[in-house]
Amino acid sequence: MKIQKIRYLSSRAAWMFLLLFALLLVFLTVFTATAVREGRHLFFAVAGYAVLGAAAYVFYRWIYRPYLESAKVLRLFLTGYTIDALFDQKVLLSPEIEEMTQKVEQIMNTDELVNATKKQAQYLALQNQINPHFLYNTLEGIRGETLNAGLENVSKMTEALATFFRYTISNVENLVTLEEELTNVNNYYIIQRYRFGERLNLSVEYDPESEREIMSCKLPKLTLQPIVENAIYHGIERKIGDGNVSIKIETTATRLIITISDNGIGMTEERLREIDDKLSRTILDYIKPDSEAHGGIAVVNVNNRIKLLFGEEYGICMYSTLNVGTDVEITLPLVKKDTGK
Fold it and tell me: What ranges in the chain are assigned the alpha helix state H?
């Protein structure tokens, strides 16, 4: 392990400094012993210790401590905990490192990252759907046949499923209106009601006097439905009795806050800590398979999309109590719909 560390310039510089410091200390000790024995040059010995101590202090404050801070920031960045701090470092190793960091910041502050992830989402949608229009047409055909047969419930379920798929895999966009997101959630709820029946209930709460402004707020596509899906599959499905999912929408001068709550089985403190740890990170390759997604987009991935689009101060927080329920709070910037659209 020590041999492995020697390959890094930081380790080599540290060893060279320690070696030089040790040699100077040995020389100063011998010189001091000689000065004491001969009774002369004691001033130079004291001055030597003072200069050596001052040099060690300057090295610690001016070089070693900034190095530790930079190393800590890089570790946090590599594990996904922070992005902004990478660009706010006061001391960098070299002008080339500074230019490289500025280049990374420049890339992340442009639409290149968003466009790349958008293309990735489009690719995955196409990969999983050979021909989306064939799916829509087939579902419409099934709906027509069920209407002719008088099976209205099956017809409504098929219509909700077709609308849900059309929204999910067509026209992958960065932002949609809250009204569109809630419509998609409602279609998903209609589908789930055929499975859970009267046992499942969904409610949406917001200030009716501000309905027009609230519904025109914009957010990343497929932000709410994955959270509702997790509430149903992880919370309510294993619960005995009625399951309630509520969506509470609030706005401030600069933020849109959406809280999705369920009265499901909740989760243990240990499990909640694991999820919180993932939510506190920003993983760039956020669109990836997740065994806990159950066919939907994982909450962690939704959180990462929000952070990548708007910044680390936004995202998801989770609160849960075992056998009581779970609250998922989504914080977004207040973005209004363009008047020209």
Answer: 2-6, 9-38, 42-59, 65-78, 95-108, 112-128, 132-148, 152-169, 178-196, 211-215, 225-230, 269-279, 299-310
Joined together, the tokens standing for residue 77 give 């960045």
Specify the pairing of strand 315-321 against strand 243-251.
unpaired
Q: Provide the token pair at 247.
A: 């969506």
Residue type (1 letter), 129: Q
Q: Look up the pTM and report it.
A: 0.60
Give the model confidence (pLDDT) of 291-313 as tens digits.
Answer: 444 433 568 888 888 888 888 88
Measured from the Cβ of residue 71, the count of other Cβ atoms closer than 10 Å reads 11
The single residue listed with the structure tokens 């300057």 is 58
pLDDT at site 119: 53
Listed in sequence order, the residues at least 6 apart from 215 whose beta carbon sits closer than 8 Å to its beta carbon are 177, 178, 179, 182
d(CA 154, CA 143): 7
The whole-angstrom separation of Cα 179 and Cα 193 is: 21
A 10 A CB-CB count for 205 gives 12
Per-residue b/e over 144-155, b at no fewer than 16 CB within 10 Å? eebeeeeeeebb
Place of tokens 């799916």: 135
Structural tokens at position 330: 């989504």
Distances (CA, A) of 115 to 106, 299, 313: 15, 21, 22
Mean pLDDT score of the chain = 76
